[in-house]
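thought: fold this chain, then report.
action: predict
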Amino acid sequence: MEIKRLQILNVWVDSVNMARSIEFIKKTLKYGKRPHSIFAVNPEKNFSVPKNPVLYQSFKNADLLIPDGIGVVIAARVLHAVTLSRVPGVELMNNICKVASDEGYSIFIYGSKEEVNLKASEELIRRYPALKIAGRSDGYIKEENMGALITKINDSKADVLFLALGSPKQEEWLAKYKDRLNNIKVCQGIGGTLDTIAGNVKRAPKFWQNLNLEWFYRLIREPKRIKRQKVLPLFLLLVIYNKMRKAGLNHRLF
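observation:
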């Protein structure tokens, strides 16, 4: 399965939708021999990724980069004339759990607070009764205890690892420990997704999601997110500038 990777300013995104992402997951679970990393791409990453060498290499070498933010979807259309649809990380995690439940794979969940991790795990079992959660751990493991966590993950024989550590911590963790993971085939960085699954954070109603305004709904609900989302206008301006610059160069050449 060949996936086209698109350059979006200082980051990349893969030309996938949810169906192609799930196809990739199924193939990787069946034939994978190592941890395959899945990270979400949004406009914020354009500014944070280049500043962190480990994060930059993690994204550059990722096996699947999903278009999580609407800004990235717009950028792909403007810069590459490629029509993408959002692949929200929370929905992809749910779909991976469904695949695991249907096809007999097991998962390990690492990250977030213990009560959130437990509640989200219980909710996933409610949604997918046949799902095997081979193990889990909260995200507050000290460095000196990390070896024991790796042993726990390996002993669980889990096929899928969900990292709920937030960015860049989850990408840095995988870069550091991926070669010590013996059985994991798919590893998705899920950030704060466990809070959503546990019900602590509400997603936008379908009406807002269908209009690609989930980001605006969350901004209304959580005004403090303005610090993160203020990069969106700048991101879009940079996309337009790069498009115009490229168009001007092509005009001069031809």
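thought: worth noting. The radius of gyration is 19 Å.
final: tokens above.
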